[in-house]
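Following up on my earlier thread - several people asked me to post the actual chain instead of describing it. Fair enough. Here it is, all 368 residues.
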Amino acid sequence: MDRIAGIINLDHEHDVLEELTYFRCGAAVPFAGRYRMIDFILSNMTNSRIVTVALFTRRKYRSLMDHLEQGKAWDLDRTRGGLFILPPDWNDPTDISRGDLQHFHNNFDFVHRALADYILVTGSQNICNIDFQEVLAEHKEAKADVTVVYKKVDELYPEHQLSHKLTIDDQQRVSAIHNERSEKNVYMDIFLVKKELICDMIEDCIAHGNAHFFLDAIKAKHSSLHIHAYEYKGMHALVNSIESYYRNSAKLLDADVHDQLFKQDAPILTKVKNEAPSKYLPDSHVSNTLVANGCVIDGHVENSILFRGVRIGEGAVIKDSIIMQRCDIARNAHLENVILDKDCRISEGQTLIGATKKPYVVPKRKVI
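Reply from S.P.:
Thanks for posting it. Predicted structure:
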C-alpha cells in the first residue's frame, strides 16, 4: 500500500483573526466548542492512516505546541513516524531560500527521509472532514503529477476573495489557477504529489530564488504539469477573518451541518481534558447552543457556543455569541453577537452588543 506523509504549512497563513490572534497563530485558535483550528486537518490526516506529519510554523507557536504536545491525542506519539514541529532553522549558512521555501529547504531531510511514497501539503484555515486515501486513489487513477483539492461553493463570501480559484476541464484537469472573484471552484490549500517529484520541485525553486512553493512550483508551471482536481463535497468552512470565523461557527448550530463535519466513522480529535459534566441550575434556560463540559449555567443562553469551564451567572443573557474556555459572566450581564476569548471576566450588569457582520471581540484575559 502506498504511504503518505503530511506537511501542515502555516508559514503563509497570516494572523488575520484580530484579537483572537494577538497571543497565538491562527491554527491554535479555538473553534466549535472543544477544538482548535489545527485539530481538523490533523484528524483528517490520522483518520486517513497518515502517521508521519510535519508542522511548518514560524511565529506565535507556543500555544500550538502546548496544545499538540507529542501528538498523543492523534496517536502520533510514535517511535516510527509521528508528529514533528519544525520551526525554521535561522543558523544555516548555506540557506539562500526565502518565504515558505525556507521551511522546505531547512527541513529537506524530513521530506527526503520520510517513509512515504507521496507528500500531502495543507494549511489549517480550511475546516473539513476529508478522506485523503480517496484523494490518493483518484490521483493515481488520473496518473497526475499533482492533485489539488477544491470545493465548489454555492455562494462566494468575502473570505473567498483572496483564495485561489481553479478552472477545470471535463477530465478534471486544471487548466488555470487564478484569483477571479466570480469563479466558484475554491482551492482548499491542499495538494498531493509524489515524493520524488516534490524533492525535485523544492531544489528547482530554491535554485531560482523563489519564495512561495505553491505559487512558484505549481501555479507558475501548471501548463507543464498534469494537475488533477479532486472535488471535496462535504461540509467546508474557510476561516480567515473574524467575520468568517463567527459565521461559520454559527453554522455548526444546524444539526445537519454539525453531523457532516463531526462524523462517527471519522472523528475530529483534540487534546483530552477531563472535566465534570456541565451543570444547569434551576433558573437556567439554554436553547440551540453547543455546550462543552465543565460549564455552570444559571442564566439564559441561546444560539451560542460555550467552551469548557464557562460560568454564566444568575439573570445573565447570552445570545448569538461565542464564549471561550473559563470565561466568567456575572449576574445580569447581557451579551449579544459577542466573541469572548479565553479567561475573560464580564462584571455584573455589563452589556456588550455587536453586529452580525461585526461581532464584538474581547481579547484573552480581559476584565470588563
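DSSP finds nine helices and 28 strands in the chain. That should answer part of your original question.
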